[in-house]
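Field log, afternoon session.

UNIT: design team B
ACTIVITY: writing a sequence onto a fixed backbone
BACKBONE:
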């Protein structure tokens, strides 16, 4: 049910409640007295219905407000579909959003972290649900977050079909909230990724990230604390922006460009670069007995990464396993398809770099790994 008020959120009959107590008659308590405002929850549902409606797509069945959302795979054009699901959050990037009072972007982040994980498996995101939890429901704040979720869904071509708003007094500090997202997509059975023809000699293309995205913010915040940088101070790595504005740039959603490459039969495999960075995520889509060789000089990381490395004294190996370092998605293509794939992706709005290649591992049974080339001791600082 779309951001419904909890069923237990109904005031007890005053007479029954009063007379169930021992001793003299007492004033009746309400759920609002306990910190849960049903009317605000209902107002939020009304406020976000148009946002959800703006994300509707083929396959969505029925109207909002039911106990569950329905989706018709046949109406969406599938013949032999495999469902693919993903769930994620935004992590401690939320702390910066709360401190800055800027909530729209984290809604986009929430969608991005889920749908980017779907598309690397060859799946088209179909529908999305969210969970918003807070100690005291603030209508403007919650609507801002969900407006961002709706925007992320529109970017991904996914319908926002439901969610849950949980107002839980005593569980969160004032103004704090947490988010979780749930995405379901589908792919035709013969269109799942990675393909079984990924091999040595294939080329690695990197798609530029929009910034730090949504991983590593515990380290980011530690570096900010050590330098007394607040969310409203000028960002030393982004002229004209505050620290909060620059770091809250939403995670890029790669769905439409990657699906276009996949539908053109040019994509062999794809890896979403999140927590664990290039070394932790690229091997997940490589076959045994292969090495992903990545040239650290083949792309220009955004200035924020050099600032984090220099200011925090973070060594290159740690930067690479915590942050995306400027590459949010890695695509595997055949050598003969590099030019065509690069042109298609560029036309779709991506910044594309040829960042490496796949080579044979030490043995056919060896687990896939990443090997960095040209990684200088002060990388990514110029």
């Amino acid at each position: 049910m779309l951001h419904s008020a909890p069923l237990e959120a109904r005031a007890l009959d005053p007479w029954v409640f009063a007379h169930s107590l021992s001793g003299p008659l007492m004033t009746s308590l309400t759920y609002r007295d306990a910190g849960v405002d049903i009317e605000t929850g209902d107002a939020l549902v009304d406020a976000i219905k148009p946002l959800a409606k703006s994300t509707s797509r083929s396959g969505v069945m029925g109207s909002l407000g039911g106990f569950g959302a329905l989706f018709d795979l046949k109406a969406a054009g599938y013949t032999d579909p495999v469902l693919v699901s993903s769930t994620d959050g935004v992590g401690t990037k939320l702390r910066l959003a709360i401190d800055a009072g800027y909530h729209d972007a984290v809604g986009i982040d929430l969608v991005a972290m889920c749908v980017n994980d779907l598309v690397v498996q060859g799946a088209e995101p179909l529908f999305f649900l969210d969970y918003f939890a807070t100690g005291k429901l603030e209508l403007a704040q919650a609507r801002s977050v969900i407006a961002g979720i709706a925007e992320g869904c529109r970017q991904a071509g996914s319908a926002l079909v439901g969610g849950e708003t949980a107002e839980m007094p005593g569980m969160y500090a004032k103004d704090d909230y947490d988010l979780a997202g749930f995405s379901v997509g589908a792919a035709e059975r013969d269109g799942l990724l990675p393909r079984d023809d990924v091999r040595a000699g294939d080329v690695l293309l990197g798609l530029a990230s929009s910034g730090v995205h949504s991983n590593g913010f515990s380290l980011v915040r530690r570096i900010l604390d050590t330098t007394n940088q607040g969310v409203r101070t000028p960002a030393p790595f982004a002229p004209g922006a505050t620290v909060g504005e620059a770091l809250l740039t939403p995670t890029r959603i790669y769905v439409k460009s990657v699906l276009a490459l996949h539908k053109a039969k040019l994509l062999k495999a794809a890896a979403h670069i999140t927590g664990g960075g290039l070394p932790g995520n690229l091997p997940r889509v490589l076959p045994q007995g292969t090495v992903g060789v990545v040239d650290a000089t083949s792309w220009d990381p955004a200035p924020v990464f050099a600032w984090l490395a220099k200011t925090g004294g973070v060594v290159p190996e740690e930067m690479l396993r915590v942050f995306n370092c400027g590459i949010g998605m890695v695509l595997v293509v055949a050598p003969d398809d590099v030019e065509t794939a690069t042109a298609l992706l560029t036309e779709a709005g991506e910044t594309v770099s040829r960042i490496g290649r796949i080579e044979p591992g030490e043995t056919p049974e060896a687990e896939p790994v990443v090997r960095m080339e040209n990684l200088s001791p002060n990388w990514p600082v110029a």
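LOG NOTE: Residues 5-21 have pLDDT under 50 and may be disordered.
NEXT ACTIVITY: expression trials, pending approval
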